[in-house]
Predict the 3D structure of the following.
Amino acid sequence: MPEPEEDRASIVALLSEQAAAWNRGDIPAFMEGYWRSPALSFTSRGKVARGYDETLERYRKAYPDRAAMGTLAFSDLEVSPLPPDAAWVLGRWRLDGVAGASAPPGGVFTLVLRRDRGSWRIVHDHTSSDPPPPAQGAGS
């Protein structure tokens, strides 16, 4: 069984691969980090998507082209093992260069991952967005 640091490195590598795929505009490759199952769950903006196909479709609708996708970066990653073959990750996401955005969208996420046949896959993703920045002149 791999050591916790090996697991952490593998999970961080998976997230790096996802960010690289996103930044190429390749949503199907980005989705390779997710569990290809009807039991996958994804929560965001007060809605729950169930299953790989519904999650993929949700990403395609929300990000129809490269201009809408921006450049993805993950930061502040905290990886915590859940023995024997699971882990959870807390982190931040940010999209720079999104067309029409007054400020870069970003927020926090919690992922639950499971090792499946030697590879880590996201089985649950809960993503939230930061509140919009205050309007200029607010409070003055």
Q: What stands out?
A: The first helix runs from residue 4 to 23.
